[in-house]
């Protein structure tokens, strides 16, 4: 313990030097700026801004990148809450209840809870990371394709829970999303699937253009189409910050989300992106009033926001402890280190203690900076809603176009956004909820690739899902969930009959 | 109301078509077997499942009327509220976005965004010319400078190649 | 309103035309765009940035990097081929410029471009790949691997960065040269492929020396083979495919500069002159050294010869792989 305190002291001595601190601040501000632009999320943010940091010393560069990352993370929930435009797949869930809160005039509290939840989750996770990183990381590597199949099966079962409204329509939308996720070149065989011969579709539709179109553009069209333009109640000053009831309602979801997110984030690969919606499904299951979800339930905002940020921190564990680029964002960070002549490996802690602990300490600092930066910004962001809608929506539309284009300088992405916007408009008018589309779209390729990898490794034997304990446990849980959901209606009917018989 | 009903039917029909495209498209790529899945297997299963779910959904809608007045989002609209300029909003906004995307690279970021937002603000919403111009210039030139100078991300110059 | 718009369009069009005329003999007179067909932060991007910076100093003209990722490089490569052939849009590419169209042909697709549409200008780096197994693996040498695979075909598995990618191809070449078959498990990138080896889900993978060196030094993984003709400074004990007699398995992850074949030869010559000066730039040399990327500069004609031989090996390997099952 004292060794860790000593190491952390070293870290803070690095992170609190004026130049590092300034770059951390600059990173947080630039990150927030990028994150607030619709469509630009943390991954796009740090990979686009990576070249900016190449001229800096390594520790400063990595601290600044971490700041950009966090800033984009916090900033991303802002557009989700205010305009229903997700910057990445994780904030899709934030749109669900965050935006509904904003429509009810609780935009300020929603933004504040997102910031506080992120801060709490981020800080708890950094503490956990500094205590246990190396020990856990090696164990987490056991999580291979078979285990992924188990986890994603669970996630798929939760998918249909997400939509508000008709179950069968949610199922249709989930399946549509899963099918859309199949578009693009199959990474395992190189076959182009449903690409219509367009090279730009080879990598699939892309989560950002799809989500911005389905959520953001369709929202603009729907609002413009209705007679009463949404009266986003211009909030009064005392409505800027959450009420005591809202805070206490979000405490437990926030803590649960943190634990859940931290654990899921440890899994090498892209598992961290499903943490927010697993948390959402969990909170909805636990809630005594699940019907409020999707209509502005504060638990449905606090849980996923915390889970998302906790996972964002623990996704760094394999990178820091083992030097492994085990996910897209750590891969960019590692690349940045390599550009500075530091080859991160399992011995990073021993060889570059200032860098390692400086980075960890800068995460503490960055979280605090962002909280201090974001709470005052709440009133600024909320006042955006005071702009007359007729002026606001052209601005938002433009931002969507720039954000989506800048990710990979692709006009095809803009067409995808356009098409998704039209599709979202008509689907939502016909009472289909589009959230399951986006989440299905994220899950599909992960599930398919893991399944086929597992079956290749086992040469076509299903035994691999049974002999591996984690995989077997996850699949067993999924199986029990299916049985339960089949049994529940039957048992309810039996009970009904029994009470009737008793009458 | 009848219009909304027709529209909902069209949406359901397009979803069925999408599912059929996935089913048909899967046969163009190797499907493999259940234990050695090829690239076509999962899309095929998903397409079939979607067809089944659509069948179930249509059956449910037949049993229960498609629209309760209250659940239909924005049930009070006529499918295109007119703006101050007397134009239906949705088609105009769609046309502006479409033309913006079309001209984005050949014409360049600044002109397309300027013209697009001016059309929406001044043409469609009849805001004052001063405000419309100001917002359009900030959006086009301002965002261009922000991306290129601050974030080092270049946006298409198109016809504006001379821009420093 | 209409008036404003008309004036605006007319003004832009006139100004646009006025500046688009330029001659080859005073190249470059305006900013040069370098298309990097991958996202920022990869090998190609990291090679391209110092080169562009050095060229900016030589030419006294801005050199702009434009990342155009997609389709394994295909999107950016096509973009460079369809840009105006005036020498102001050039392309950084790696072996996918050969493998993307070749795999298109094998899979029965119409290739989106042909590599003949591009002329090689210069090569900057050419790293061999290092084949590695987990630190506690029973395989001590590449021969152990070959023997095990011969005894029971398909019993030794490897993870790749994706079908027809820069790990799949050299593995196929090595297996073919040794006359054995390995079991291929495709992952979605080099990072996940390495993670799969460390998590004991597959037995081998390949990667660049600079990426793998720290893992090798810590004992987490063990290097068995170098796909190049000569040993690398970072890992001098690792035998090459030449040492082991598998010459046909020679493979490099190189990065080169290309232009559209329609660019006038005089302009290409100007670019080559500029690049020849840029690679002597001390700052450029120092930056690549920092990234542990040894400079393997080749000028146009030499690079052309290298590229043709490299392409022949890659195309033959892709034909042998055929359609991935």
3D architecture notes:
The complex is a heterotrimer of chains A (503), B (164) and C (325). Chain A is an all-alpha fold. Chain A is built from 21 helices and 2 strands. Chain A has one domain. Chain A has a two-stranded antiparallel sheet with strand order 1-2. In chain A, strand 1 and strand 2 form a beta hairpin. The mean pLDDT of chain A is 86. With 164 residues, chain B is mainly α. Chain B has 2 domains: 62 residues; 62 residues, no CATH class. Chain B is 64% helix and 0% strand. Chain B contains 5 helices and no strands. In chain B, helix 1 runs antiparallel to helix 2, helix 3 packs antiparallel against helix 4 and helix 4 runs antiparallel to helix 5. Chain B starts with a helix and ends in a 14-residue tail after the last helix. With 325 residues, chain C is of the alpha/beta class. In chain C, the strands form 3 sheets. Chain C has a 6-stranded mixed sheet, sandwiched between helices. In chain C, strands 8-5-9 form a 3-stranded antiparallel sheet. Chain C has a two-stranded parallel sheet with strand order 6-7. In chain C, helix 6 links the parallel strand 6 and strand 7. Chains A and B meet through helix 8, helix 9, helix 17, helix 18 and helix 19 of A and helix 1, helix 2, helix 3, helix 4 and helix 5 of B.
Short description:
The complex is a heterotrimer of chains A (503), B (164) and C (325). By secondary structure, chain B is mostly helical.
Helix tally of chain A equals 21
Mean pLDDT of chain A: 86
Give the number of domains of chain B. 2
What low-confidence regions of chain A span 5 or more consecutive residues with pLDDT below 50?
none
Radius of gyration of chain A from CA coordinates:
23 Å
N-end to C-end Cα span of chain A: 65 Å
Give me the count of strands of chain B.
0
How are the SSEs ordered, and which strands pair?
The complex is a heterotrimer of chains A (503), B (164) and C (325).
Chain A: H1 2-15, H2 18-36, H3 42-49, H4 58-83, H5 92-103, H6 107-140, H7 145-159, H8 167-180, E1 184-185, E2 192-193, H9 207-225, H10 244-266, H11 275-286, H12 299-314, H13 317-322, H14 328-339, H15 348-351, H16 353-383, H17 389-408, H18 411-429, H19 435-457, H20 464-467, H21 469-502
Antiparallel strand pairs in A: 1-2
Chain B: H1 2-26, H2 41-63, H3 89-107, H4 109-124, H5 129-150
Chain C: H1 2-19, E1 32-36, H2 43-59, E2 63-67, H3 74-82, E3 89-93, H4 96-106, E4 118-128, E5 130-134, H5 142-151, E6 157-160, H6 168-178, E7 183-186, H7 190-198, E8 204-207, H8 209-217, E9 221-226, E10 252-260, H9 265-278, H10 282-290, E11 295-299, H11 300-321
Parallel strand pairs in C: 1-2, 1-3, 6-7
Antiparallel strand pairs in C: 3-10, 4-10, 4-11, 5-8, 5-9
Helix pairs in contact in C: 2-9, 2-10, 4-11, 6-11
């Amino acid at each position: 313990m004292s060794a860790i305190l000593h190491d952390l002291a070293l870290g803070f001595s690095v992170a609190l030097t004026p130049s590092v601190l300034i770059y951390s601040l600059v990173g947080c501000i630039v990150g927030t700026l990028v994150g607030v632009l619709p469509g630009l999320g943390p991954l796009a943010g740090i990979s686009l801004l990576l070249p900016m940091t190449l001229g800096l010393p390594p520790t400063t560069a990595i601290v600044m990148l971490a700041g950009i990352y966090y800033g984009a993370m916090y900033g991303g929930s802002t557009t989700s809450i205010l305009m229903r435009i997700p910057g990445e797949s994780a904030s899709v869930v934030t749109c669900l209840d965050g935006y509904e809160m904003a429509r009810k005039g609780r935009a300020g509290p929603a933004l504040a809870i997102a910031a506080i939840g992120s801060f709490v989750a981020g800080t708890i996770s950094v503490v956990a990371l500094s205590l246990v990183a190396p020990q856990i990381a090696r164990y987490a590597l056991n999580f291979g394709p078979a285990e992924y199949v188990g986890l994603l099966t669970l996630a798929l079962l939760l998918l249909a829970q997400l939509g508000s409204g008709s179950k069968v329509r949610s199922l249709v939308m989930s399946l549509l999303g899963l099918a859309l996720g199949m578009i693009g070149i199959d990474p395992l065989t190189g076959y182009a699937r449903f690409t219509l011969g367009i090279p730009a579709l080879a990598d699939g539709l892309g989560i950002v253009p799809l989500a911005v179109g389905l959520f953001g553009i369709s929202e603009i069209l729907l609002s413009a189409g209705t007679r009463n333009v949404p009266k986003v109640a211009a909030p009064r000053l005392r409505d800027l910050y959450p009420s005591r009831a809202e805070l206490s309602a979000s405490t437990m979801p926030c803590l649960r989300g943190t634990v859940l997110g931290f654990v899921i984030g440890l899994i090498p690969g892209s598992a961290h992106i499903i943490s927010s919606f697993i948390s959402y499904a969990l909170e909805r299951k636990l809630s005594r009033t699940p019907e409020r979800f999707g209509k502005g339930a504060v638990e449905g905002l606090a849980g996923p926001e915390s889970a998302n940020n906790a996972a964002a921190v623990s996704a760094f564990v394999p990178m820091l402890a083992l030097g492994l680029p085990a996910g897209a964002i750590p891969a960019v960070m590692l690349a940045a280190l390599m550009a500075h002549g530091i080859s991160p490996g399992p011995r990073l802690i021993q060889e570059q203690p200032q860098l390692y602990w400086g980075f960890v300490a800068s995460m503490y600092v960055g979280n605090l900076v962002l909280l201090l930066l974001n709470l005052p910004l709440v009133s600024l962001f909320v006042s955006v809603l005071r702009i007359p809608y007729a002026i606001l929506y052209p601005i938002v539309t433009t931002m969507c176009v720039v954000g989506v284009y800048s990710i990979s300088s692709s006009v095809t992405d803009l067409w995808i956004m356009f098409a998704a916007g039209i599709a979202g408009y008509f689907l939502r008018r016909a009472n289909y909820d589009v959230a399951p589309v986006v989440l299905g779209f994220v899950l599909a390729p992960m599930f398919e690739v893991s399944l086929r990898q597992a079956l290749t490794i086992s040469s076509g034997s299903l035994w691999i899902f049974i002999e591996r304990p984690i995989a077997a446990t996850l699949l067993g849980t999924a199986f029990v969930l299916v049985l339960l959901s089949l049994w529940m209606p039957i048992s309810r009917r039996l009970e009904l009959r029994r009470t009737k018989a008793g009458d | 109301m009848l219009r909304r009903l027709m529209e909902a039917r069209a949406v359901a029909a397009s979803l069925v078509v999408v599912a059929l495209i996935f089913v048909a498209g899967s046969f163009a790529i190797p499907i493999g077997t259940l234990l050695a899945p090829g690239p076509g297997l999962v899309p095929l299963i998903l397409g079939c499942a979607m067809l089944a779910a659509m069948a179930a959904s249509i059956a449910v809608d037949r049993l229960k009327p498609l629209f309760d007045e209250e659940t239909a989002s924005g049930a009070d609209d006529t499918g295109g509220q007119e703006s101050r300029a007397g134009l239906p909003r949705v088609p105009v906004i769609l046309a502006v976005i479409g033309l913006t995307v079309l001209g984005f690279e050949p014409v360049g970021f600044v002109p397309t965004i300027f013209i697009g937002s001016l059309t929406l603000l001044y043409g469609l919403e009849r805001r004052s010319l001063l405000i419309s111009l100001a917002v359009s210039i900030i959006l086009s030139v301002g965002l261009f400078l922000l991306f290129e100078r601050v974030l080092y991300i270049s946006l298409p110059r198109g016809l504006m190649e001379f821009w420093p | 309103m209409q008036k404003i718009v008309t004036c605006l369009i007319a003004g832009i069009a006139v100004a646009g035309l006025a500046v688009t005329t330029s001659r080859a003999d005073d190249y470059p007179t305006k900013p040069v765009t370098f298309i990097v067909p991958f996202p920022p932060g990869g090998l190609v991007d990291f090679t391209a940035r110092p080169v562009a910076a050095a060229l900016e100093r030589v030419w006294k003209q801005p050199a702009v990097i434009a990342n155009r990722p997609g389709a394994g490089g295909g999107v950016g490569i096509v973009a460079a081929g369809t840009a105006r052939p005036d020498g102001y849009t050039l392309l950084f590419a790696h072996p996918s410029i050969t493998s993307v169209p070749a795999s298109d042909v094998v899979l029965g697709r119409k290739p989106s471009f042909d590599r003949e549409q591009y002329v090689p200008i210069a090569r900057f780096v050419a790293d061999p790949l290092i084949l590695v197994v987990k630190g506690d693996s029973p395989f001590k040498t590449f021969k152990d691997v070959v023997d095990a695979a011969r005894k029971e075909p398909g019993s030794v598995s490897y993870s790749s960065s994706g079908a027809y990618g820069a790990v799949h191809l050299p593995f196929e070449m090595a297996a073919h040269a040794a006359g054995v078959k390995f079991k291929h498990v495709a992952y979605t990138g080099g990072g996940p492929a390495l993670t799969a080896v460390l998590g004991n889900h597959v037995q081998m993978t390949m990667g660049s020396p600079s990426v793998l060196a720290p893992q090798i030094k810590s004992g987490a993984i063990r290097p068995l083979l170098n796909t190049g003709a000569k040993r690398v400074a970072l890992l001098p004990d690792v035998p090459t495919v030449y040492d082991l007699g598998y010459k046909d398995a020679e493979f490099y992850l190189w990065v080169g500069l290309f232009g559209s074949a329609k660019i006038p030869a005089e302009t290409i010559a100007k670019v080559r002159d500029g690049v020849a000066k840029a690679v002597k730039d001390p700052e450029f040399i120092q930056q690549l050294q920092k990234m542990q990327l040894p400079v393997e500069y080749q000028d146009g004609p030499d690079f052309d010869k290298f590229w043709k031989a490299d392409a022949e090996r890659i195309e033959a390997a892709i034909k042998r792989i055929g359609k991935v099952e």
